[in-house]
Amino acid sequence: MVSEERKFCFCTLAFGKNYRNLALLLAKDIEKYSPSTYFVILSDRPQEFSKQSNVLAFKHIQNSVKLYHDKRFVLAKALSLFHSCIYIDADMRIVAPVPQDMKWLQAPGIVARSCDIMRKKYAKVFAGTADGKLYKKFLVTDKAAQKLNLYLENQEVKFIYEYLFAVTKDSGKELEFLKHWERIAPYFELNGVHDGEGNAIGLAAAKAGLQVRWSEMEGISFFKDRTELIRIKNGQSNIQDMAVYFEQQKMLEYPKQSILQKVAFKISNNIKYLYNSLRLRIITLRNFVFYYQ
């Protein structure tokens, strides 16, 4: 039974052995630095978290083609149990104590460690200097926006870097947000943008009227490899201090494998991709006008 005193939780997805191991490491960080906080996890093997008392793990079957958009399911589960949830990628770490009274978490809506208006993100597109990949993602996002009667030029339409963000309940708007995301996600994937969940989050929030705010998210001291490399380059972090985190992540996320293991993993992933792609096309035929016209 979840205590009423616990107003927020952390949450993530953990699929595959590597990411389950990373999530277990993150769970131990949360246990150490935020001992009164639960960690909600959706996983293909939730039983592997049974010995971690701060984890609430639930079975989940992959819904989206490449898992990115399945983040909405763990948000839905977390918000059914808590007033607020903080999504954090499974390959990240918490490196310092987390206060229980973070002011930025108290306001309703979405708070993101990194976000901006769509027009700024796609400034190169509007200036005519975007590369093919960026331009494609813009086109798909722009068409999805139009189908929702939204416009990327609008200052209210934002995107969210989805590795670390929080959602706090807002009189049901958070549920509308999840419904819109559920509708938008297949459109991105059908058009070949599988990792566009940050854009989908922004569009869904704008459609639901759920406020998106930037915040430093003071109190959440974290390690993320790419972010840490930028910090080190800018002289904001020390490689020696972070070496153990880099080593642990590399060991768990990219373990040594035999050629046979690599081939089997690749074949398995290709089969999953083909199955999920076919399933997606069949399901979306129910709303042919929205997805195909």
Would you kindly provide a written description of the structure presented here, covering whatever features stand out?
- By secondary structure, the chain is of the alpha/beta class.
- It is built from eleven helices and eleven strands.
- It has helices at 16-33, 71-79, 118-121, 123-127, 132-147, 173-190, 197-208, 225-233, 239-253, 259-284, 288-292; strands at residues 8-14, 39-43, 55-59, 84-88, 93-94, 109-112, 115-117, 158-160, 164-168, 212-214, 222-223.
- Strands 3-2-1-4-9-6-10 form a seven-stranded mixed beta sheet, with helices on both faces. A two-stranded antiparallel ribbon has the order 5-11.
- Strand 1 (8-14), helix 1 (16-33) and strand 2 (39-43) form a beta-alpha-beta unit.
What is the overall pLDDT average? 93
**Overall 3D shape:** globular
Q: What helical percentage do the residues reach?
A: 40-55%
How far is it from the N-terminal to the C-terminal residue, by CA? 47 Å
Briefly say what this structure is.
The chain contains 11 helices and 11 strands. The protein has 293 residues and is α/β, with parallel strands linked by helices.
Protein topology:
Blueprint: E1 8-14, H1 16-33, E2 39-43, E3 55-59, H2 71-79, E4 84-88, E5 93-94, E6 109-112, E7 115-117, H3 118-121, H4 123-127, H5 132-147, E8 158-160, E9 164-168, H6 173-190, H7 197-208, E10 212-214, E11 222-223, H8 225-233, H9 239-253, H10 259-284, H11 288-292
Parallel strand pairs: 1-2, 1-4, 2-3, 6-10
Antiparallel strand pairs: 4-9, 5-11, 6-9, 7-8
